[in-house]
Structure formats: C-alpha cells, structure tokens
User: Fold this.
Amino acid sequence: MKALAIDTSNLVMGISVIIDDKIVGELTTNMKKNHSVRLMPAIESLLQEVDVKPSELDKIIVAKGPGSYTGVRIGVSVAKTMAWALNIPITGVSSLEVVAQNGKYFDGLVCPLFDGRRGQIYTGLYGNVDGQFQLVQEERIILLTDWIEMLKEDSKKVLFLGNDLNLHKEKIEELMGDRAVFGQIADHSPRAAELAALGIRGEEEDPHAFTPSYHQLAEAEAKWIANQKK
Amino acid sequence: MDKDEIILGIETSCDETAAAIVKNGTELLSNVVASQIESHKRFGGVVPEIASRHHVEQITIVIEEAMKEAGVGFEDLTAIAVTEGPGLVGALLIGVNSAKALALAHGIPLVAVHHIAGHIYANRLMEPMEFPLLALVVSGGHTELIYMAEHGSFEIIGETRDDAAGEAYDKVARTLKLPYPGGPHIDKMAQDGEPSIDLPRAWLEPDSYDFSFSGLKSAVINTIHNATQRGEEIAPNDLAASFQESVIDVLVEKTYRAAEAYDVKQVVVAGGVAANKGLRERLTERFDGSGIELSIPPLWLCTDNAAMIAAAGSIEYNKGKRADMKLNGNPGLDLEAF
Ligand SMILES: [Zn+2]
Assistant:
C-alpha cells in the first residue's frame, strides 16, 4: 500500500509518502507562503525523491480541516482530484487530530487548537482511553473562555498544542494555572508522517463526495439562517 | 491524419463550476456547467466563500461528467486548459489546483487561460474567427473593446472607467427591487416598456472608446427618488427600457465607431450581457449592411462555461504555451500581458 498524505489546512505545508508501515518521505514547512503555488511542485518533487509514480499510489490522505478555509480547500481540491483521477480512495483526517499526535505519550489530556478569531478557537480533546489515543471531546469552534471552563471540570493535566498558541497562552495560564502544560518548540506543527499513519488504515471515502470539515458555516449563510428565524 | 487534439477546459472563476471537452479547437464534445445561482440568490449576489465551497464539492463530478459525455478518457487528453484569472481568488484556486492535480496524476500538459480570452473564443465554437477582429466583452465584471490582429493577440482599446455594464444592470435591478440576477429581468421589462425617460449617455472624449456607467446608475436612482418625493409613480417597465436604451446606445455606437476606425473584418460580442436581447437586436441592426460581420454566440455560450476556456486553451497550446505546477489563480490577471 502506497499513499500520499497532504496537509495545507493552516500555515504549515506538510506532505508525506507512506509505503505499508514505513514513512519513506516527509516534507514540512511552517511559513507564511502560498500553498496554491507551492503544494503541487512539492508533491511532484517528493514523489520523485522517493521513486513513487502517481500511478502507483493506492490512496490519498488529506487533512480535511478545520483551519484556514482557503488552505483546507487547496489541500482537499488537490487530494480529491488526484484520488478521482487515479481511481483510488481518499481518506480524510481531522487537522486537529494530526497536531494532537505530537502529545500522544503525554500523561493527561491533549488539547490541539487553531485560532478561530474573535476569541474563538478550533479545538477538541484527545487522550488515552483503554490504551488507545483517541478523541474524548468532540471538535468544535468555541470561545476559549467557555472551553477552559469545561476543561476545569476534570482534574487531569492538559497539554496544549498548536502554532497559534501564543495568541491564547496567557489567558489559558490565567484560567487554568498549573493544570495547563504547553508543548515545546517542535511539538506544535502538524506532521504529515502522523497524518499518513492515521490515514493509512482510515475509512476509505468517495472522492466525489469528499468535502472539507470547516466546523462552521460561511458567515453569510449563518447570518441568512439567523434572519430566517426572526 | 494526425491524432485529434482533445482539450479539457476547467472554469471556476465565479459562481459556475464548469468543465468541457473541445476537439481540434472548434468542435464542442461536451459542456457541463453546475450553476450555483440558486444558492447565491438568497444573498442578492455572489458570496465568494460560498462559491468556493460549492466549487470544491462539485469540481470532480463536473469534470467526470464532461469526459463521460464526450466519451474521452485521460489517455485521450492532449491538454488541460484552466482559467487562471481574473475572477474571485478563492474560486479560481479550486479550478487551478484541481487542474494541476489532474495534470500531475496523468502527465498531461497544462495550459493557463485568461477568462476574457475565453469569452471571446466562445465564438470560435460557432464560426471561424476573421482578423483583424474587434471584440465587445460585456459582463458583470467587464466592459471592454478588444482589438485582435491575430489569434491570441489582445489589445484593449476601450474599457469602463467605473462600473461594468453588468454591474450597472445589477445595481439598477436592486433599486427596482428585482430578484438577483437583475440583468435578465431588466431586459425582459424593457421589452414591455417605452424608453420615455431622459437618462444621460456618457460619451466621454470624442475619440475615446472608454465607457462609464456610474453616472447613469446614479441618474436612475435620482429619477426614482425625485418621483417618490413628488408623490408620482414611474412605470418600472419604462424606466427599465430607458436605462437599457441608454446603455445600449453607448455600447453599440462605440463598438461601431471602433470597428470602422480599426477597419476590422469581424465583430465578436462576448460575455454574460451579450445574452441581452435588446443589445443583440440593436447590434444586428447597426451592423446590417456595414460589410462587417457580426458574430454573437448563442445565449448558453455567453455566460460562464468551460467550453470557451478549452477553445482559448487550444490556441495557447498550439502557440507552445505551457503552465507548470506553480500555476496560481490570479484575480487581477492582465489580458494584454497574458
Ligand atoms: Zn465571465
């Protein structure tokens, strides 16, 4: 089984190639640069580097969001088109779940987050249950303060991860004190190797029907629905 | 004989997700357009974020349908032509990245197309183009007179200094409280009204082929406002007819003057507003007996589609132009530099 994994859902661009149980190539950058320009050349060169032809791929794995709407769509457009064109399945993995993997050996709960503007964050809670690292609180977009209130109900320590953490770290410390633990320099970026590892056995989906997970409606749509209810 | 040239066109610059297959630059094999108009209607205009969401949902479905309908497989494709710009950036990105992914997956050459070049080349699917040629491009985003000395060469000799013609239609339609999109409604109302209200025509400098529609739009709004203040009622059909006549007078006259001055063989009308019945009639009248051939594509080829992108892509392909994996959507792409 040969699979290509793609993540452009936030500033990080991550690509990896997995062959059975082995990650044979991985590329990660964390810069404010254009995914639309850089993603395809990077895929082309990584595939060449690891001697895999597009036609040899058995699956495409993509970080399906949440994240920057445009970023998520670039990755998903490329992933679903390649999967459809090569007649192979696509597997979507939550962009937050990929980041959470960086804390999978943490003794406590793991909280990956992306900034969601206006005091909100995209987040979810992961932890070890019965020896399995898995989702323990549904992903959502929520006010940081509301989310922390909820986390305080538990007594476990929480490891916070994500490149947008600097925007919210102070507030989290203020509200949670010692119970908050923060990832180190190399823990915040999603790794495409983790994405590939999660996706290789993940559910196979139909490329045509595959859509991003935005976790919220477009603003105009939300306003329109609110107006209908008036 | 050589193998047929089969081009897949992809267009996602605004609110239509479209794919088409064109054979040898002129023969349309399939033309699939997934319109989002029903979705945007409730907002009174195109919402870019919603347009992008629809594109990503539709893109592979639309391409597959176009290929199936044409009976072609990936191995038959000579090239993929995709709209690079202008348009909504988030919308363009879907088509561009999808096209690149397809090109990489099957090692197919990729060609970038300017959306307006596409509109002009829609005509080539109906009849041969004859040079020198003048194109009048009128749509929601464009009002331009373009001189073409030969295939793939574009010189803008006149353009709007403010609103595009289609934009003026939409704004006036909103003032008249017509549902979106307003252009076709005004066109229909104008057929039933009399152009009895005096509205300005912006001729600008005597030798200019530029356009201006913002003054006209303001005049329409003022006319309604003043009438309401006086407690009078203006027949909407008459106002629509008067507005339409004012727009068409300028479009037709400037196009005719430019066609004569540049001594062109053919005048091609392109873009969404080319679907306007009033405009088609008046242009036909004006060019009748002029010795200049007037070419207006059928309505379904005037609005955004991918057949026109494939047709223009064929010219670019044969000129040896290729896009690489770095191709990006360019919302402000320049036609002359293209
Ligand atoms: Zn157009």
